[in-house]
Amino acid sequence: MSDATTDATLPKTAAAETPEGPWRVALRKLFRDRTAVGAIIVLVLIVLACCAAPLYAKYVSQSDPFQSNLDGSITLDGNSVDIMQADTAGLGLGVTPIGPTWHGQYFFGADNQGRDVAARMLYGGQNSLLISFFATVVTLVLAAIIGTIAGFIGGLTDTVLARLLDVLWAFPVYLLAISLSIVFISKGIQIGPFTIPSNSLILPIMIIGIVYVPYVARPIRGQVMSLTRSDFVLAARCLGVPSFRILVRDILPNVTTTLIVFAPLMMALNMLTESALSFLSIGVQPPNASWGTIILDGEDLLYTQPMVAIAPGLAIIITVLALNFLGDGVRDAFDPRAKLRVKKD
Amino acid sequence: MLLPILRRLAEMLFVMFGISVVVFGIFFATPGADPAARIAGRNATPEVLAQVRHSFGFDEPLPVQYVKVMEKLFISRDLTSFVNRGEKVIPAVVESTPVTLSLVFGAAVIWVVFAIIMGMIAAATRGGIPDRLLMFLGLVGISMPVFWVGSVANLITQSRFHHTFLFSWVPGLGYTPLTQNPGMWFKQLVIPWITLAILYIGLYGRVLRANLVEAYQEDFIRTARAKGLSERRIMVRHALRTSLITFVSMFGLDFGALVGGGALLTEVVFNLPGVGRLTYVALQSLDLPFIMATVMYSSFFVVVANAVVDIAYAWLDPRVRDAR
Amino acid sequence: MTLRRWLHSSALALIAASGLAAATAVTAQAADHMGGTLNLTGASAAGTIDPQINYTSQFWSVLFITNDGLVAFKHVSGESSNDVVPDLATAIPAPQDGGKTYVFTIRKGVKFSNGKDVTPDDVVATFQRIFKVSNPNAGSWYNVIVGADACLKTPATCTLAGGVVADDAANTVTFHLTQPDSEFFYKLATPFGDIVPADTAAKDLGTSPAPATGPYMITSYDPQKNMILKRNPYYKEWSKDAQPAGYVDTINYTFGPKPEDEVTAIENGQQDWMFDSPPSDRLPEMASKFPNSIHINPLFAIYYAPMNVNIAPFNNKDARLAVNYALNRKSAVNIYGGPRLAVPNCQVLPPGFPGYKAYCPYTKNPGSKWSAPDMVKAKALMKASGQIGQPVTVIADDQNVDPALGTYLVSVLNELGFKATLKVISANIQFTYIQNTKNNVQISISQWYQDYPAASDFINVLLSCGSFHPGSDASINISGFCDKGIDAEINKNLITAVTDQKAANAEWGKIDAELVDQAPWATMFTPKQLDFVSARLKNFTFSDQFHMIYSQVWVQ
After folding, report:
1. The dihedral sign for the CA sequence C134, C135, C139, C145
2. Which residues in chain A have Cβ-Cβ distances shorter than 8 Å to B265?
3. What keywords does the record list, in alphabetical order (chain A) (predicted)?
4. B104 in the same domain as B33
5. Contacts of B222 by beta carbon, 8 Å cutoff, 6+ apart
6. Residue in B43, B278, B281 closest to C476 by CB
7. Cβ atoms of residues C259 and C400 within 8 Å
8. Fewer beta carbons within 10 angstroms: which end of chain A, N or C?
9. CA-CA-CA-CA torsion sign (B252, B257, B260, B265)
10. Contact: C139, B48; criterion CB under 8 Å
């Protein structure tokens, strides 16, 4: 696996010292990539901030971001200010939530239930991150299993699996996700003795995880197929190496690399999908929150308190951007010839 | 040559059949989706309800209902909505197609032009400041949720800056047919075009740059350089040409998916009555005939785009046939 | 245009009637306002436009100006819009046979938009059609007509023989009822009673309109896009109370935009009126920028949270009372748009409705008016109920303020000690979902708008044993509340109403209070209708029954 152009960019010292495994080389490369390191730092900060949500709610915003607060007021610069501000001028119609105070309480203002948007964003971030992370795990695990089985065994198994993937693939992602969500969100699922309630995070995780399986399974299948037919595997077979051994020794490590390259990019994609589903009100269910649902709340207030929609949007952009930068870095490090690309839409 | 095409057609049919079964199954698994009650009205007596259920055939076994729906969809072509009764499904889909086509064509023109410009500038200045800046902007474009961009665009053009000279020309949300008023058609679609194109400009610009950079290392470029051709000529006549193969195949897939309803979020945010919004509304109201028709329609485009791209690819590059 | 025109404000109409000079002046002035296109908009269409089937206030407003029944609600602003006046009939007939027979004389010279005359046969066919197309209220309203039983059983062969009888020579139609019905004229005045030609297909017309008799006719309708109404060439005004001529030439009703965007479109002059209620946060801006474009009118409606009295935890009366005491109706009112747009309400009937008598036990100072929640009492009741820690799911639909009200209710329930969550489901299925006992819905957000001004339309329809059908999607008694004693009182009072409306209304008030004490619901508020119109829309006319009258506004 050598390539003239990438060898030139490899650190010369690496070759001189004791030979290192490909993983260590890749990791070392990754950590030399300043953009990737920057992305990792940003992501760590975001995760830490979201983990600190309960602390923020308790000590900074001093309100429960899941309880409506339609009658309350806060003290701002010594004055008492209503959170839901009734119109006093003119006809006295309508109630508008408080806008960004840029102070500890109601930093980004309130939503139409009088809840602190900044505190909800931190809690919502937890859900957005959890869903996109575990959906990625689901996608990668399923894709690895299906892709490897199809590519390695071939024959009828391959045909059946490949056609199944085709069905999933031809199903426009959002349509599939929406159809699944509408069913599960209104009913929940019951599998044997286990009941998954309709407001469980497991549902969006599974839905998003499943719809993207073909995106990863198809390239893996292709990769496994070409490896199975490659000269060194044929040679091993001729020497009588058992299939299982070939799978474990020669094929799986390659698949693992592919998965690692896909991971951050899939997570970025999943985060966007989660927000879109929540925006269409079929992702995370209230009173739970995610960045997508907060944008949906903000959509109702778009023309009066746009910050409710803009702030979580920026949070999504920063996180997805960091994941994409990290993805670029990981790909450069693990897959220098950049064979793999994630299709996006 | 004929056999592979026939095989491909059979595969397409199989995939579409699979999708129709999945959609039908999903719909009937939904509680409260019984269309009879909604058709009968808000304080219908159980007797009236039973009559309605019978007259629509909801009391028959599922496979029979499935066959009936498919028969009405493809053979007699007179399938009507469960929610807006009497509304024929097929004309509704046909009527919303020009909206989606207008949106996607306009956006495609924008994204292809800008992505090529962006990719070429970045490749020409690779490693330099313009390259880095453009690649960063491209990644930002990829990272933005399209519905959010649409909402912010609405905020700016419809409300905050609507009364300034910048956006006072922006008409209300919606769609005017090209044949009715071309000027209005254009004005209403410009903002949605740009919103939809942003993601693809970033994506295609980055891919094109990568391909161009790769192409620059190929032998034929070195030869061209050695022959003393100008950089510009090398870029346009040689590098760009080879790099466009990936570009074109990506375009085929994305275009198919978008025409098939993938532009759903953009259509919803800008209230464009296209196929995506039609699908979304149908899913929200659990209107099975519409769901079936729109999903079949969109999967048709995706499947066809896949097949066309695969065949084109195989035709361009025989090696691919083995890898698939 | 040679038709006679007038101004439709009642004061001016009086002047017009009082003198010829004034009348010509008004005619000239009104003529200036003729023509133009009225642009209406709504988030979505409301289904079929078959007058015998559509049961939505959204399209009843349209049918109000396109089609006519034998009688009609007066097409005017204010309280007299609740009055029934003769329309295609020449007069309101006097009851014969103790209220079991009515003879209508059909007006001569009225034509359908297809050029044919309206005849007694059309009337008979229309009432058969009510059964043939499975009208939603066929079994609950029109079953009082002789012969209705057979029609309900086998709709296809419905004749209503002996129930609705035409006499072509005398140009009359005679109705025979099985029992006196105090609400019969109301039932004829809704669009279900709109007369259509005898040869109209006996199936749902869907998106193709029935021939019109009013000043406008629907010329195209696409539920995904828009509906267009144009002048009916065969219309000639016969009664300005029952069906006055219209001002604008064309009405274009666009479907699709979200309420926020509808507000913006009206502010920018791109639309003239919106069906949906404007989002609460936009109101201050609208009120300050366009104070003359806002019209507020009372509605006969309630927003309420029906509690399922047959399953835990709300089979416990203390738990239901606790919710009622804890519910801060002011917060709910604020969600809807503030005190100018909604009135806190504790009971079944909306304020001002026939039979309404103010009563509210669930407040800090119990009496006739709600003042503040009584959290202490609520918590005590909650403790007594033993339901603390019980899981509760609130079911709300996804339209307008309903999700916000649901979120707020969850908050209240959690404060009381329940473990509450919210489930938002599509408005298209929520209403039937919460009715079906199979779905085990504990509490939900719902609303009820009157069909016609009679207390039974709330009390009898929503809380009688007869409207509770376990396991059916059509069980409008969402709470599943059935009290034999109260039910007997309701039935007795329905009979009283035929002869003595006043005594019956007093009795409805008492029954209302008894129901409130049982607390099958937590009533939240009675909304008001806020219409936001463009700067160019003038002569705003609002009927209590069908809201803005599209034919009476002008745009130039």
Report:
1. negative
2. 174, 276, 279-280
3. Cell membrane, Membrane, Peptide transport, Protein transport, Transmembrane, Transmembrane helix, Transport
4. no
5. none
6. B43
7. yes
8. N
9. negative
10. yes
Q: Evaluate whether residue B85 is within a structural domain.
A: no
Hey, what domains does chain A have and what are their CATH numbers?
37-55+115-334 (1.10.3720.10)
Q: Name which of C136, C204, C436 is nearest B43 (Cβ-Cβ).
A: C136
Q: Which residues of chain A neighbour B298 with C-beta distances below 8 Å?
A: 172, 175
Residues B259 and B200 in one domain: yes
Which residue in this structure is represented by tokens 């778009």?
A302
**Residue of C261, C439, C459, C465 for testing the chain B interface, max B β-carbons within 10 Å:** C261
Q: How far apart are CA B43 and CA B61, in angstroms?
A: 27
Q: Which of A171-175, C45-49, C225-229, C405-409 has the lowest mean pLDDT?
A: A171-175
Q: Per the structure, how many domains does chain B have?
A: 2
pLDDT band at B22 (very low <50, low <70, confident <90, very high): confident
Alpha-carbon distance of B165 to B186, in angstroms, equals 18
For the question of an ipTM over 0.90, the answer is no
Q: How many Cα atoms occupy the beta-carbon half-sphere of B240 within 13 Å?
A: 17
Q: Identify residue B241 by its one-letter amino acid code.
A: R
CA distances from A118 to A64, A107, A124, A270, A299 (A): 12, 6, 10, 23, 16
* Residue percentage of chain A with pLDDT more than 70: 84
Q: Residue C129 phi/psi, 5° resolution?
A: -60, -35
Residues B262, A172: C-beta atoms closer than 8 Å: yes
Q: What range defines the domain where residue B41 resides? A: 2-76
Q: What are the CA-CA distances from residue B260 to residues A317, B19, B257 (Å)?
A: 27, 14, 5
- Tell me the average pLDDT of chain A: 81
Window from A99-103, B81-85, B107-111, B136-140 with minimum mean pLDDT: B81-85
Which comes out higher in pLDDT, residue B100 or B78? Answer: B100
Three-point CA angle C373, C379, C381, nearest 5°: 100
Phi, psi (degrees; rounded to nearest 5) at C178: -75, -25
- Of C179, C174, C176, C15, nearest in space to C89 by CA: C174
Global pTM value: 0.81
Q: Please report whether residue B291 resides in a domain.
A: no
- Residue B243 and residue B156 in one domain: yes
Same domain, B29 and B108: no
Quick check: is B295 in a domain? no
Burial of C148 (0-12, 13-18, 19+ CB in 10 A): buried
Q: Residue A44: helix, strand or coil by DSSP?
A: helix
Given the structure tokens 């035409």, which residue do they identify? C166
Q: Are residues B126 and B8 in the same domain?
A: no
pLDDT, residue C326, reads 95
- The residue with tokens 């304020």 is C351
Cα distance from C430 to chain A (closest Cα, Å)?
10
Residues B119 and B163 grouped into a single domain = yes
Classify residue A97 by its DSSP letter: E
Would the CB atoms of C279 and A300 count as touching at under 8 Å?
yes
Tell me whether residue B97 is in a domain. yes
Both B64 and B166 in one domain: the answer is no
Q: For chain C, which chains pass the contact test of at least 3 CB pairs under 8 Å?
A: A, B
Please give the Cα distance from A99 to C217 (Å, whole number): 47
Instruction: Let me know whether B258 and B122 are in one domain.
Output: yes
- Residue-wise pLDDT for C138-155, tens only, equals 888 898 999 999 998 888
* For C154, nearest residue in chain B (alpha carbons): B51
Output the domain CATH number for residue B266: 1.10.3720.10
